[in-house]
Specification:
By secondary structure, the chain is an alpha/beta fold. 30% of the residues lie in helices and 16% in strands. The strands form 3 sheets. Strands 1-2-5-4-8-3-9 form a 7-stranded mixed β-sheet. Strands 13-10-12-11-14 form a 5-stranded antiparallel β-sheet. Helix 4 crosses helix 6. The structure holds zinc ion.
């Protein structure tokens, strides 16, 4: 039996999390090739082929179900297997739901604006949480949670939160249990022929709290580059280079790794640049303990070769003591130029398009997330491919889909970065390292 292959894979964001939805929508007008259920005989439509909510297509809620766990066949998962059993196999007794969920697998079989068959309430409506009238089949999106794995429940909480956001629903009112359709309550009904969602019902409110948590989760600003402030420890600034040279040589004699920069007509002698202010302060203290003056500045300047007491041979090579410039740690060339051009275009910046991945470029790097489309994603994909990570069969197509997300996650894991599938500054830097 051939497994289903999704027609489309969507990576959707909810708060700081993402979910991956594999779409295999039952074709409109598909008909049963055998008797499937009392309401779906051979030749009948296998899904209602009608829009939700009186034909408007606007869902009024989400209905959550549980169904029995299964051991999936080798090479697939339970969500795909249930979807396949529904259509094309016709082995689910005429059930048609929007989402099958198992662990982190989500398979979608109905569009979010169309009706399903899942609530056993036909076309009926009953009083809803808002005091109006809502029908399970005719007004709500159906989610089937397969089994009772906490991971599946967590995925459903994210999915419900995502659907609420997307369709303007409120997790406090618009999320229903199947039991609500049958018994009018969101809890286990003793002695009832059926309770659903069986595993979630006993802690339904806790589940709803989780949905609300995801629903309310704040998203970090999407495109603002992180500030890239460096705290520099400066020991002196001189009008005459010879004075700066003298200080620099004294520092070196005392074992400090020091360098000179030029800015505002002054020669500045600095000892280290730190991302964390405390580290800069510690260095300043060490200098003061040795009798040097020291203070912290966030300003730099252009590097100046220092005149050492024992002059190094004249050469265009950087002297041994000269600090490596940022761009020397990273690849340079046409891809970096492409990146610089794109940042300038998208964020209205004026960084120099010189092909060097330096501080100016680094501080302008945007955050690129799953679901993004465009040239920045394409650049990320090109780099991933160069580094041996597959981004799927379409290659660098500029679409941050499932395969690219997986590649980023793998890359982050390999490079011991925070694993979140999002390309922020640290991931960008790692991608462009030599
Ligand atoms: Zn149910």
């Amino acid at each position: 039996m051939a497994f289903l292959t999704p027609d489309r894979v969507r990576v959707e964001r909810i708060g700081r999390h993402t979910i991956t939805i594999k779409e295999k929508i039952i074709p409109d007008g598909a008909r049963a090739t055998k008797d499937i259920a009392s309401h779906v005989k051979k030749g009948d439509l296998v899904k209602p082929n009608k829009k939700l909510n009186n034909g408007t297509g606007k869902p009024k809620g989400v209905t959550v179900h549980n169904t029995a766990d299964i051991t999936p066949a080798k090479g697939t998962n339970a969500a795909e297997q249930y979807a396949r059993a529904t259509y094309p196999n016709g082995n689910m007794g005429g059930v048609a739901v929007h989402f099958w969920v198992w662990k982190n697998e989500i398979w979608q079989q109905l569009r979010e604006d169309e009706r399903g068959w899942h609530a056993a309430d036909g076309s009926r409506r009953r009083k809803d949480h808002r005091g109006g009238q809502t029908g399970g089949n005719v007004d709500t999106i159906a989610i089937e949670c397969i089994g009772k794995d906490p991971e599946s429940e967590d995925t459903i909480a994210k999915l419900v939160a995502y659907l609420c956001k997307k369709h303007g629903l409120d997790p406090a009112y618009d999320v229903y249990t199947h039991n609500y359709r049958m018994h009018g309550v969101d809890k286990i009904v003793q002695g009832a022929r059926k309770n659903c969602p069986l595993y979630i019902l006993p802690h339904w409110n806790k589940f709803l709290d989780k949905v609300k948590e995801y629903y309310n989760e704040k998203v970090e600003p999407e495109t603002k580059p992180k500030t890239n402030t460096l705290y520099r420890v400066q020991t002196g600034a001189f009008k005459h280079k010879s004075n700066a040279d003298a200080l620099l040589n004294r520092l070196k004699k005392d074992g400090f790794d020091t360098y000179m920069v030029q800015a505002d007509g002054l020669y500045k002698v600095q000892v280290g640049a730190y991302a964390i202010r405390e580290n800069a302060e510690a260095m300043a203290k060490r200098l003061k303990d040795k009798g040097f003056s020291a203070y912290i500045t966030t300003e730099s300047g252009s590097p100046v070769a220092a005149e050492s007491a024992n002059p190094a041979p004249k050469s265009s090579e950087p002297t041994k003591s000269a600090p490596k410039k940022t761009w020397q740690y990273y690849i340079s060339g046409s891809l970096v130029k492409e990146l610089q051009r794109e940042i300038n275009k998208q964020f209205n910046k004026k960084i120099k398009v010189d092909g060097y991945f330096g501080n100016e470029t680094i501080s302008a790097l945007p955050v690129v997330r799953p679901g993004a489309e465009g040239n920045l994603t394409k650049i990320i994909q090109k780099r991933l491919i160069e580094l041996g990570y597959s981004v799927g069969k379409w290659g660098a197509d500029g679409k941050f889909g499932n395969a690219t997300y997986s590649a980023v996650v793998k890359f982050q894991r390999d490079r011991k970065l925070k694993v979140d599938g999002i390309v922020g500054q640290e991931t960008w830097k790692e991608l462009f390292k030599k």
